[in-house]
Amino acid sequence: MHTELSRRERKKEETRTRIFRAAIQLFRDRGFESTTVDEITEKADVAKGTFFNYFPRKESVLAYLSETRLVDIEENASVILATDKPVREKLVELYLDAASAYAEDKELSGFVLLDLMRRAFGPVEDVGSRWQKVTVQVIRHGQDKGELRRDVEPVRAESLLTSLYFATLYEWVCCPGETFDVEEELRAARAFVSQTGGRVREEISRALPQIDGTITYNASLALSFAVPDAQLAPTSAARRALPALALAIAGALAVAPLVHAAAGAAAPRPAAAPAPPGSPDTLRLSLDQAIQSALAQGEEMRAARAFVSQTGGRVREEISRALPQIDGTITYNRKLESIFQNVEGDTIFGPLLKNSSFAAANTWSLDLTATQLLWSGGKVGSALKAARAANRSARASAAETASEVTFQVRQAYYDAAYARRLVEIAEGGLAQARAHLHQVRLARAQGDKAEYDQLRAEVDAANQEPAVVAARSGGDIALLALKRLVNLPLDQAVALTTPLAFEDGMVPVAAELESSVAKRPALLAAEAEVDARRYVLNVNKGRRWPDLSLSSTLSHQAFPRDEFPARGQFRRNWDASLKLEVPIFSGLRTEGQIQQARADLDKAAADRDRLRESAAVEAAQARAELERSLSTLMARRQTVRQAQRAWELAEVRYRNGMSVQIEVSDARLQLQTAEVNEVQATRDYLVALAQLERAVGHPVPVLRKPLEQVTQLLSPEGRP
Questions:
Q1: Pairing between β-strand 325-334 and β-strand 362-375 as defined by DSSP bridges
Q2: End-to-end CA gap in the chain
Q3: Measured between alpha carbons, how far is 218 from 102 in angstroms, rounded to an integer?
Q4: pLDDT tens digit string along 574-620?
Q5: Fewer CB in a 10 Å sphere around the end CB: N or C, the chain?
Q6: How far apart are CA 629 and CA 687, in angstroms?
Q7: How far is it, in rounded angstroms, from Cα 56 to Cα 127?
Q8: How far apart are CA 581 and CA 692, in angstroms?
Q9: DSSP reduced 3-state for 617
């Protein structure tokens, strides 16, 4: 029996291989999209049902190919890991070996690569975990040996390397022609990693003594050399090597050796933030608290505040150009050997040179230099105005970001509250169905209802349960989205305290539906950007004018016989200079800079005008959506009242024997649908109100009015 099973398995594998080879041949000849399953089965000489027994769909053939190649890669990986090469070289060879499997057939590899990427990064497939296990093992081995950095998480390093590896393969697949050699590009990454290792040694050398030897013969006049700009342009080969270089940079950052110990300076590392512990306590979160948390801790706001700080630093930098620049220098020079070391015995030159820097073995120099810019042709003033305008633009952009974050949080909060209300409605419908079922069972026990009525009531109650499950699942997803925006732990229990309802039936209605966008921060930022570009243009125009500066240097020098001089050995020298720098000819560089600055100004003005138009359209759409959602809300509220009354009447009619079970079920379903529509309309109205505030750039004043007054306002007779 065992022999029979083995023979059967071999026959199945032969059939799978025959189908696979026939499909691959057709893919190469006709293309993947043009090949049909019928053509594959005809070429493999098997029935169509046999094909689907081995491959559920045509794409499964690619998955089988990628699986076989992954098995080969795993087998070769064990050979690479057994070598005595450095760990960094092992990593490069692993990725090179994986890439070589695709170099045979570029067109077919394109389909296999897309399928493999889907499986490698998918949450279910084990392809990514198998490759990750091999690579992480190499990285950890290198960390244990001290070859790789220990402050990098191996899983994150592997994920980054693999992502960039697939990006390189994908560009190779998309690159037309045969000019892109994927293995050569990845080998360039290995060379670049070695180059970055040399950069490490270069940085270490800065802390070591610098010893230079120079032999100079100077017989040249003033010469200048210019390199044509064309020689500096990147070649097409260098442009194609960018993905491989990106992979190399990621490798250098993730697995470069630590150099702090070698340089003799152990820089303090920031303590890792502890993972937020899961708290069993429920966090009560209001809408205002959610907005404040997102504004205080959100990544978008942190980046916006950092940009504001950066532009503020530029303002200070430009201010400093108009202030005096004062520098102090202390220099000590020790001559070990000198051509003047025996000049003191000379009767003629000895008295003259013994207290000079030529013959003195020790020289001390204390210099204090002050420089003040007197006139710059308006360059400094315009640069300062440009920096301040850029800072205003950054602040307005930060306000725009805050407005966007506020809207996103409000929308997510309303979505979560809406999902919670759906759960309550679904659970209420289930409770009503079960209560009705209980009444039917009691009535049947007394002989008042038939078995058919009980069966219909049981089916009706059972049909309510999937709706409850679906509503709860949707509520969990909406709450996760809110937690992400508010930066809460995903396992934190949260209770929303701001209801998706109006207090005492008082609906907030916009006091004025203005659509002016003049106060929107995005437009203010664009206007400030235009001002900054205008001042930058003035800066470049000012390059045509000379600069006038005044400087003064106070110097004290001493030439003691011992290492340290006495106070009386210092001699003072004080000079002042007035410097006028006149730009005579700069090779049309200034004209080019002016042309670029003028183009930047035109582009900024065009962007501002385009933004103003789109903002006006957005505000008008938000206003129309607010009016529509308010009308829908009023209609939905009236429908709920009618559906509630209809369900109550259906219950009474059924208990009195005047109607059948299906009438009660329909009435309850209509009531549940009306309640869902009302909650949806409430959510849409609140989101529309938030969207209007987002569009106009400031809070919209609202008046709380009773339901009846709002209905009259929306009626044709109530309109002015």
A1: antiparallel
A2: 92
A3: 58
A4: 999 999 999 888 888 888 888 999 999 999 999 999 998 998 888 88
A5: C
A6: 9
A7: 19
A8: 56
A9: helix
Query: Which residue(s) pair with 685 in the sheet?
Result: none
Q: What b-and-e string marks burial along 499-508, b requiring 16 or more CB atoms within 10 Å of the CB?
A: ebebeeeebb
Handedness of CA 214, 215, 221, 227 (dihedral sign): negative
- Taking the CB of residue 433, how many other CB atoms lie within 10 A of it? 24
Cβ–Cβ under 8 Å, residues 465 and 430: yes
Place of tokens 């590896």: 165
Using alpha carbons only, what angle is made at residue 652 by residues 647 and 653, rounded to the nearest 5 degrees?
Answer: 95
CB 188 within 8 A of CB 249: no
Closest listed residue to residue 570, CA positions, set 582, 584, 560, 580 = 560
Residues 476, 420: Cα–Cα separation, whole Å: 9
Count of residues for the chain? 720
Q: Which amino acid is at 554?
A: L
- How distant, in Å, are the alpha carbons of 190, 208, 269, 279, 409 from that of 204? 22, 7, 19, 47, 48
Using the structure block, give the residue that is written with the tokens 């410097």: 579
What local confidence, expressed as pLDDT, does residue 718 receive?
A: 39
Q: Dihedrals φ, ψ of 578, to 5°?
A: -115, 120
DSSP string, 637-701: HHHHHHHHHHHHHHHHHHHTTSS-HHHHHHHHHHHHHHHHHHHHHHHHHHHHHHHHHHHHTSPPP
342 DSSP 8-state letter: T
Placement of tokens 């998480």 in the chain: 153
Report residue 186 as tokens: 């990845």
What pTM did the predictor assign? Answer: 0.54
Pair of tokens at residue 593: 């800079």
264 three-class SS: coil
CB 368 within 8 A of CB 271: no
Structure-derived torsion over alpha carbons of residues 276, 278, 280, 281, reported in degrees to the nearest 10: 20
Is 259's pLDDT higher than 50? Answer: no
CA atoms within 13 A on the CB side of 210: 6
Task: Report the alpha-carbon angle 302-306-308, nearest 5.
Answer: 120
**Which sign, positive or negative, has the C-alpha torsion 582, 586, 589, 594?**
positive
Q: How sure is the predictor about 527, in pLDDT bands with cuts at 50, 70 and 90?
A: very high
Q: Which helix (H) or strand (E) holds 581?
A: strand 571-581
Give the side-chain half-sphere CA count within 13 A for 79: 7
Look-up: residue for tokens 């202390």?
A: 330
Q: Is residue 92 within 8 Å of 196, Cβ to Cβ? A: no
CA atoms within 13 A on the CB side of 183: 12
User: What are the tens digits of pLDDT across the range 143-173?
Assistant: 887 777 777 777 777 777 777 677 676 666 6
Per-residue three-class SS string for 106-159: HHHHHHHHHHHHHHHCCCCCCHHHHHHHHHHHHHHHHHHHCCCCCCCCHHHHHH
> Which secondary-structure segment (H or E) carries 401?
helix 379-445
Handedness of CA 63, 64, 69, 75 (dihedral sign): positive
Six-digit token string for 689? 């109100």
Q: Are 24 and 50 in contact (CB under 8 A)?
A: no
DSSP assignment of 44-68: HT--HHHHHHH-SSTHHHHHHHHHH
Q: Which residue has the tokens 């659970």?
A: 427
Which pLDDT score, from 0 to 100, does residue 128 have? 53
- Cβ proximity of 415 and 477 under 8 Å: no
- Which of 4, 495, 76 has the alpha carbon at shortest distance from 290? 495
